[in-house]
Amino acid sequence: MTSEVETSDVLLARSCGGDNDAFAALYERCFGRVFESVRSVLRDPAQSEEVAQEVMLEAWQNGAKFDAGQAQVSTWLGVIARRRAIDRVRASQASRTRDLRIGIRDWQEHIDDVALSVETRLRVEGVLLALRDIPVLQRRAIELCYFDDYSRVEVARALNVPLSTANWRIREGLTRLRALLAPDVIPDEARADTKSR
User: Alpha carbon of 151 to those of 25, 157, 164: distances in Å?
Assistant: First the structure.
């Protein structure tokens, strides 16, 4: 009776020669160890079985590369199994990372467009009404800056005033607008609470 190492070597050599029975015997003998080696890395039994089958297929296809002088068949299969298992972990991790990146990139918060557009329109109407109640020079500076998208320097040129005057008109106009819009922004309960103090 020959030892298991010799028998595995012989079975592998015969498998490379196309002997299906020899490969079936080698598979029966080594699959359990290969599976456990892979499972120690992957933990998932289904994936471990799949990778272990890939290892055995590789042994059948590349058995001619095996050098009995370098290692035993079980050691050689164990090295292949460990490498394949680590490759599977890396691929899985890369896939999760890629999916996460794509998911974050493509994720959009659900926004009620109708409510948002109504709310925006009401706020714009409120600002336009409040603009009527501030002095004309300040209103014109704000309109140029915020509605016509002029820079502060362009506002000064358009109004034919120094830059400091244009800045002052914008700042004072915004302060007045804020005061006019404050009742709409502060909830009634908070306003009542501040008046009672």
Answer: 83, 10, 13
Amino acid, res. 197: R
Work out the average pLDDT over 46-50: 91
Angstrom distance (rounded) from CA 167 to CA 159: 11
* Residue 108 to residue 112: CA distance in whole angstroms: 12
What are the structure tokens assigned to 110, written together? 């659900």
Return all residues near 10 (Cβ < 8 A) that are at least 6 apart: 2, 22
Looking at residue 64, what DSSP letter applies?
G
Separation between Cα atoms, residue 28 and residue 26, nearest integer Å: 5
Arithmetic mean of pLDDT over the chain: 83
* 3 state SS for 7-44: HHHHHHHHHHCCCHHHHHHHHHHHHHHHHHHHHHHHCC
